[in-house]
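ok so I'm stuck.
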Amino acid sequence: MAEIRPFKGLRYNIQKIKLEEVITEPYDRITPAMQEDYYRRNPYNVVRIILGKDDDPDHVEKDRYKRAKIYLDEWEKEGLLIRENQDALYLYEQEFQIRGENKKRTGLITRVKLEEFSSKKVLPHEKTFPKHKIDRLNLLRATNTNTGQIFLLYSDDKNNVSQAIERARQNAEPGAETRDDANFLHRLWIIKEKELIQRIQEAMADKVLIIADGHHRYETSLNYQKEVLKKMKEAKGDEPFNYIMMTLFKLEDPGLVILPTYRLVKGLDKLSEEELKNLLLPYFEISEIDWPDTSDKSKLEEAQNKVLNESHTFAAYISQFEKFFIFNLKSEDLLDKEIIEERSREWKRLDVAILHSLIIDKLEALSSEPFSLENNVNYIRNLDQGIDEVKQGEFQMIFLLKPVSLHQIRDVVENGELMPHKSTDFFPKLKSGLVMNPLDE
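replied:
not stuck anymore, here's the structure
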């Protein structure tokens, strides 16, 4: 079901450019401070294309989308960006460390035929927000280029795709190799042999794809496709705008890592130890870990281990009480009773769903003012930073939870459902600037 195609990728000319100076994190992970740093590193850093400044002092063009197109054209004309001399697929290898363990994974960069979600050929796993899609659509309109990677998953339990990719790797050309700020290794291999490409296409043909990261960019390309089709008198269906650049990873790849996204909560003016326990005791066994000295990381590790190793367990650090509260769900039987939404059994048993339904939603009782996710809850991936924000009084508590598993994502998505908001954080991210997909041929 997944129709993939090779393409003439647009890549930095590593004979003229130091790759480590021009690649970046994905656009939605770039903070203002990171944007400034990327601008300083190299005048040809890809940040000027994927997330240019609103007012760039180095350029007369004030519209950052038009400016991105100007940069693309100028850099290609100057030979700083080069197009592949023939259609190709790309292998993207990442070697990295997490929790002291070395990991490696390989993704396939390819064009994939755009499909509406209703076709069940490409499946989303989370909701998107309009403002992000408008921004990406403006960039795509201006550049007519896929400038960033979209992270997708497919199941390959019989290893048909893996075998085809491994065979192609043996004859692939090295394209790039660099290390990022975390000293993680990124390699790009180029597959040009038509027979090897065809083998991969055939192995991928029956795959259903699940979007892991990049929902906004995928939906943006669907909208762009519709815009272009409206302007055309006739379309054959194989035009470049009918496809989007993706990086496809095998669901069974041991190098796939998902990290949790922690929840920060504020605005609970009626919070007390007694009220908190009374509110949540109907659902959880509650214990405590005193943590008066936050420099003592052993207490934090103790709380983390309970969360990671015990079923449906959550920890809340509350600096006001100088302790962690540990919440362990009493019984899964509570879930069907308390989560009244029309959801599958798999969805209701997600820790992130339990955290929101049986803890965070209940906290409204401890607030005199209207309580909402938009106004009272924030999401953070850096635990140390989140704990600091609680210590400084910006928030009252931070909740620790275990990450969802790949198979939980697959089960929920194949049920036709979306994961709760901010459920997944795939680590590490795919770098922007390794290869782009021009749609202008």
